């Protein structure tokens, strides 16, 4: 039971980080964003960020890859 709760917390944290990155890219552009900006917007500690990602480039690469796979999946169904 505890692991399901932990997984939900991790999912929420990653969602908050992803949403923060998206908002900040729209506001400032990727090059101007710092990990401090992302963590402040996501309301998490920097240590939590680094628990999941190496840096902002790692985060961006991961979510870009997921987006690419999503579009490949959607368009392959047509």
Automatic annotation (TrEMBL):
<dbReference type="InterPro" id="IPR050624">
    <property type="entry name" value="HTH-type_Tx_Regulator"/>
</dbReference>
<dbReference type="Pfam" id="PF00440">
    <property type="entry name" value="TetR_N"/>
</dbReference>
<keyword id="KW-0238">DNA-binding</keyword>
<keyword id="KW-0678">Repressor</keyword>
<feature type="DNA-binding region" description="H-T-H motif">
    <location>
        <begin position="34"/>
        <end position="53"/>
    </location>
</feature>
<feature type="domain" description="HTH tetR-type">
    <location>
        <begin position="11"/>
        <end position="71"/>
    </location>
</feature>
<dbReference type="InterPro" id="IPR009057">
    <property type="entry name" value="Homeodomain-like_sf"/>
</dbReference>
<dbReference type="InterPro" id="IPR001647">
    <property type="entry name" value="HTH_TetR"/>
</dbReference>
<dbReference type="GO" id="GO:0003677">
    <property type="term" value="F:DNA binding"/>
</dbReference>
<protein>
    <recommendedName>
        <fullName>HTH tetR-type domain-containing protein</fullName>
    </recommendedName>
</protein>
């Amino acid at each position: 039971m505890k692991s399901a709760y932990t997984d939900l917390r991790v999912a929420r944290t990653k969602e908050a980080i992803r949403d923060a990155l998206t908002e900040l890219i729209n506001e400032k552009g990727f090059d101007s964003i710092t990990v401090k900006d992302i963590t402040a917007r996501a309301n998490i500690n920097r240590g939590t960020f680094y628990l999941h990602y190496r840096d902002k480039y790692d985060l961006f690469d991961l979510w870009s890859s997921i987006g690419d796979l999503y579009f490949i999946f959607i368009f392959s169904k047509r």
